[in-house]
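ARCHIVE CARD
Drawer: 12
Card no.: 0347
Subject: one protein chain, sequence and derived structure
Cross-reference: see card 0346
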Amino acid sequence: MVSAPDVHGKSADSVVNPMLPALYTIQRVKRETDDTFTLELVPESDRHKISFLPGQFIMVYVFGVGEVPLSISGDAAGTVLVHTIRAVGIVTRVMSRLRRGDKVGIRGPFGTAWPVQEAQGHDVVLIAGGIGLPPLRPVLYHVLSRREEFGKVVLLYGTRTPSDILFRDELEQWRARFDLEVHVTVDRAQSGWRGNVGVVTTLIHKSSFDPQKTIAMVCGPEAMMRFSALELQRRGVSTNSIYLSMERNMKCAIGLCGHCQFGPLFVCKDGPVFRYSHIKDLLVKWEI
């Protein structure tokens, strides 16, 4: 049976409904820390394969429970959809109990992306706090696969304690590279920790990058991002060259419901990645 064309000349089957989830299957579950895990998802049908840009997010629906926005932590050039998730609410706690072969619904991708194209020819500084590292990991994959197109590349990563550090094996691999500078710090040291202690902003002055030709991308708790942006400015990085990924309670993901309103903006469609110069005045206001 051939579907009737719609008013735009497309068949009904070819029109994508952004509110209709596609069925995906969990291919692998990996425990990262006590409260954080990674899901690798594959589509039930090839026509539901998702292409995304680093920084975009997906709405993931757990059937019978609810839907949450999740950043993508995998390689944009890969074939598997990867999410690294902290179990902090009803949906994500149920999600943490899912296993290989279970099904979820997927909508997206949505939102703006990290400026990986604009960053070509520049030094790249990535600053992550806690669960803010997963949304930045696709940027690292992109940059390292085209390493000759970028200047210095710096990753600054901070967590609460050493036991909260994500992607430990990859961090060691990245640290071993001669073309990538990696610094990790913790707020509170535990027995055996011999690394940096202190908030992640203390690492900015230790890093070797040229402020005049740097693109900085920052993701983490809002206060951490605000102070990181201020410290980058003190180093001489322009506010137009600093990008932040904001989090808000996103429901529809297409700017209709208003749950993620951020001043005059909607995080789901105007973000989540914003140029710092566009939102710096909003960041200092309470209850926005």
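Annotation on reverse: The chain has two domains: 16-110, 123-283. The two ends are 51 Å apart (CA to CA).
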